[in-house]
C-alpha cells in the first residue's frame, strides 16, 4: 500500500505548473535584487513545492511536467535542479521523475559508482514487477542510448557480474502456479551447493535469477522444511563477504521486499551520519508502492515509527519532503 | 523485404473464415461417406487453404482466427491440426500463428529437443528486433506459464547455457550510435581471448550478448582491420566443436542474418534427405520479414533460385505452400 496522500480535489495541472513556476519566480526576483546573496535556495518557496509535488501521483506529476514545458519552454526538472540544493533537491528530483525513468537514472548512477552500487541494481531488478523492470530497460534505452544490461555487464566483474546481469535482464513469470516437484529438487540443489560453499555456482544463479517469485518462494520453503534452516541462515554461517551479503539481500528482496526495505531504512538512519542516498531512494521509490507495509514492518522491528526516526535524523525541507511522502500529516 | 504476396483486394475476414471452414466440411462429409478411406487429408481442400492463408499478413490471419472462433466455437489452428498432416500441416500451423506466438512455440519446442535445438534459440534471440524478442517472451509467459529464460537455463548446461541465457534475455539498444573507442578496445579483448582459445570466456559472452548490433558491427570491423582476419575465420582455425559452431552462427545472425538464413536453407535442402523442420522454420518466420533478401543471397551463392531448389526437393501441398510463401506466382 502506498503512503502517498493525494488531496480529494486536485487542482488542474496547469494551475500546479503555474504555482511551481511562481515558486521559482520569487527566487529570480529576489536574486535580481540581492544578487550577491547566495544562500541555498534563498527566495524559492520550498514549502509550496512540497505542498504540490509531494501530493501528486506519478500520472499527475507527468502531466504537470508536460504542461510546465509547454508553458515555459523549459523542463520542470531543470528548473528544480537550478533552484534547489543538496538532499532536498535530490529527493524532489527523484520523486518528480516517472518511476521507470527514476529507476533508469538510479541504475545508471549505480553502474558508475562503487560503494554499494550493486545493491541498487539488485534492488531495482528484484523488487519491481517484471513489466515495470522491462519499462526501466526501455527508459534506459531512451535516456542513455544503450542497454541496462550492457552497462551492468561492462561495469561489474566476477561473481557480481554473474549474478547482476541475469537479474537485471530477467522477465520472470508472474503467475501463482507452483511446481512442487521442481521446488523440492531445486531446494536440494541449493542446499548441496551451499554445503559445498559453492555460493556463486551457476545453478544457484540460475534458480535465483530465472524462477518466478512464487516458485522461488516454494523452493525456499522446502529448503527450510527439509534442511531445518532458512537458506539465508545457512548463507550466513560461513565467512562473510560482499558477495554473500548481496546474495542474501537478493533472496530477501525476492521473497520479503518490505523486510529488505525496513532494514535498509533502519541502517541508513541508525548509522553514524545518516545515509541520505539510501533513505531518499527508499522513500521516493516506495511511497507510491508499498510504503505503508514498510512503515508497519519498521514500527514492529524498531518499536518506534519511521516518521519519528526520520524527523529525529533529518531536518528542514528535506525532512518535510520525506515526511510528506511517507504520509505524515494531511494532503 | 517480405516475400509474402497479399492480393490487392482482400476479402473480409468472415468470408475467409467461412471458406476455410468449408474446406474442412468437405472433408467431414467425405469422411462420413467413405469412413474407411484414411488417405492423408483426403477430401480437405488444401488448395483453398493455401490460396487463403498463404496470402494474408499476420494482422489479417489473426482476424481470420478470431472471426473463425466466434463463428464456430473452435480455434482455426485446432481444425487445421485435425485436417492436415505431416510437413504441410507444420508449415500451415506455424505460418498461421502470430509471429511472437510462433517464436514462443519454436523456442519451447527447442528447449525440449536435443538436435540442433540450440540453434533455434540463438536464431530467435539474434535475428528478431529487441522489441519483437520481448514480445516472444511475453507470448511465452502467456502460453507456457513460465519464462523463456527459465526454460532455456534449465535445459542447457555449460558453455551453451552461458551463451544462450543472456542471448534470449537481451534487450539490445537499437540505435545506430557507435562508440569507436569502445569498438577498438573490445575488438582487442575478443582477439586476446580467441588467441588464448578461451572461446567461452565471459568477456566474449558479455560483448556478444549485450552490445547493440551497430556497436558489435563496428567492433567486428575493427577486429578485421586490426588483426587481418574476420573473427569467424579465427574461430574456425582451431579444432571445431558444437560450441564454436554455435558461436560463429551467433555472430553471423547478429551481423549478416540473410547470409545465415541462406546457408541454413542451402544445408537443409542440399543434405541427404531434406531437413524439413529447418526449411519450414526459415520460410514461415522470414516470409513476412526479409525473404526477398534471403532469396537474392541464395541465388548469388548457389547460382540457382530458391524457388527452383524448393520445387526440386519437396512436393505436393507442402511444396505449394512454401512456394506461395516465398512469393512464387500471383497472390
Automatic annotation (TrEMBL), chains A, B:
It holds the Pfam family Annexin. A pair of annexin repeats may form one binding site for calcium and phospholipid. The keyword Calcium applies. PANTHER family: ANNEXIN, ANNEXIN D2. Keywords: Annexin, Calcium, Calcium/phospholipid-binding, Metal-binding, Repeat. This is Annexin. Belongs to the annexin family. SUPFAM superfamilies: Annexin (SSF47874).
Amino acid at each position: 500500500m502506498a503512503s502517498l496522500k493525494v488531496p480529494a480535489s486536485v487542482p488542474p495541472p496547469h494551475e500546479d505548473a503555474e504555482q511551481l513556476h511562481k515558486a521559482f519566480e520569487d527566487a529570480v526576483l529576489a536574486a535580481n535584487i540581492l544578487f550577491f546573496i547566495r544562500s541555498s535556495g534563498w527566495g524559492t518557496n520550498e514549502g509550496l513545492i512540497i505542498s504540490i509535488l509531494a501530493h501528486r501521483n506519478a500520472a499527475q506529476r507527468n502531466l504537470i511536467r508536460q504542461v510546465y514545458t509547454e508553458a515555459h519552454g523549459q523542463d520542470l526538472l531543470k528548473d528544480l535542479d537550478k533552484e534547489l540544493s543538496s538532499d532536498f533537491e535530490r529527493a524532489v528530483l527523484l520523486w518528480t521523475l516517472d518511476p521507470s525513468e527514476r529507476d533508469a537514472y538510479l541504475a545508471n548512477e549505480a553502474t558508475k559508482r562503487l560503494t554499494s552500487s550493486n545493491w541498487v541494481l539488485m534492488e531495482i531488478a528484484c523488487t519491481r514487477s517484471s513489466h515495470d523492470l522491462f519499462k526501466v530497460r526501455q527508459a534506459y534505452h531512451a535516456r542513455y542510448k544503450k542497454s541496462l544490461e550492457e552497462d551492468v555487464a561492462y561495469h561489474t566483474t566476477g561473481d557480481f557480474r554473474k549474478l547482476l546481469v541475469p537479474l537485471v535482464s530477467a522477465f520472470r513469470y508472474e503467475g501463482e502456479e507452483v511446481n512442487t516437484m521442481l521446488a523440492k529438487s531445486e531446494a536440494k540443489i541449493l542446499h548441496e551447493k551451499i554445503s559445498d560453499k559453492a555460493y556463486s555456482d551457476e545453478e544457484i544463479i540460475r534458480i535465483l535469477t530465472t524462477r518466478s517469485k512464487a516458485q522461488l518462494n516454494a523452493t525456499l520453503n522446502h529448503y527450510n522444511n527439509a534442511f531445518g534452516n532458512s537458506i539465508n541462515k545457512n548463507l550466513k554461517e560461513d565467512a562473510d563477504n560482499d558477495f554473500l551479503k548481496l546474495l542474501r539481500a537478493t533472496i530477501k528482496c525476492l521473497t520479503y521486499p518490505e523486510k529488505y526495505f525496513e532494514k535498509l531504512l533502519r541502517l541508513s538512519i541508525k548509522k553514524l551520519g545518516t545515509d541520505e542516498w539510501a533513505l531518499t531512494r527508499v522513500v521516493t521509490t516506495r511511497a507510491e508502492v508499498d510504503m505503508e507495509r514498510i512503515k508497519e514492518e519498521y514500527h514492529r522491528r524498531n518499536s518506534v515509527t519511521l516518521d519519528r526516526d526520520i524527523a529525529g535524523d533529518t531536518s528542514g525541507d528535506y525532512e518535510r519532503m520525506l515526511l510528506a511522502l511517507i504520509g505524515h500529516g494531511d494532503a
